[in-house]
Amino acid sequence: TLTVLTVWLCYSAWYKGSTTLALLGGAALAIGLFFTFGFAVVGAWLVVWVALGAWGSEDRRLALRRAVAGALIVGAGFVLLHLILLLTLGYRPLAVAQQALSAHRDVTTIAAARTYWKWLLMNPVETAIFIGLPLVVAGIWSRRRLSLDPGSARLRVFLASWLIVLLLLNLSGAVRGEVGRIWLFLFWPAALAAGAALATRPRLSAAVPFLVLFQVAQALLMRGYLTIYSIM
Q: In this structure, are residues 179 and 127 in contact, taking their beta carbons and an 8 Å threshold?
């Protein structure tokens, strides 16, 4: 919910040129980071999304200036919310991040000492499982539709930034534990990719009952065999 709210506020601020919405977007990002340090991935995704969108604009220089100005306002909202948390709760994000990263290193290097290459190969598989294999299949079906439709330019940039962030996270070797939960707030764009084709092409929409049954089967399997670590 916070991911959708943050993205909606930031996009609305960009589209309408609203300082208020940009401040609220920064505050929403700060609230997400307060709940989970992994929410920083959403911030990274927004940066890549705006950068790609500005770079592909007709007036690139003006778009980049707007992006920088908007980022500063979002940053102000982010800092303001953290100042409120500091004054009311004594919350210090840098100290919390330091302890969280230390605990993360202990878990990934001691409790689950799997080699880098196994994580590199299993991260995409586990991500697809937790997204939902039917959504992944439908998303692949929609790829050609999105590439041919001139009206899908914004959605293509949106999804490209999403894939870039996931790829960099995977190659970084920093994400090594419970990927299905760590990246949970980045899964819903796959539904947009799938829906873009299924909602506009009658032949593909006939596959919806199959996808629903596929999802039910996966849910039943995960209920009984939620972890895949035992097969490694």
A: yes
pLDDT 10s per residue in the chain (232 long)?
888 899 999 989 988 889 999 999 999 999 998 888 888 889 999 999 989 888 888 888 888 888 899 999 999 999 999 999 889 989 888 888 888 878 777 766 665 566 778 778 877 887 888 788 888 877 777 766 667 777 777 888 888 888 888 888 888 876 665 555 666 777 778 777 777 767 766 676 677 788 888 888 888 887 776 655 554 4
Q: What six digits make up the tokens of 217? A: 């089967």
Angle at 129 between CA 223 and CA 108, to 5 degrees: 95
Give DSSP secondary structure letters for 40-53.
Answer: HHHHHHHHHHHHHH
- Nearest residue to 158 (alpha-carbon basis) of 79, 64, 25, 48: 48
Specify burial of residue 144 (Cβ count, 10 A radius: 0-12, 13-18, 19+). exposed
Chain-centroid distance, C-alpha 158: 10
Which of 62, 74, 64, 90 is CA-nearest to residue 32?
74
Question: How far apart are alpha carbons 191 and 188 in whole angstroms?
Answer: 5
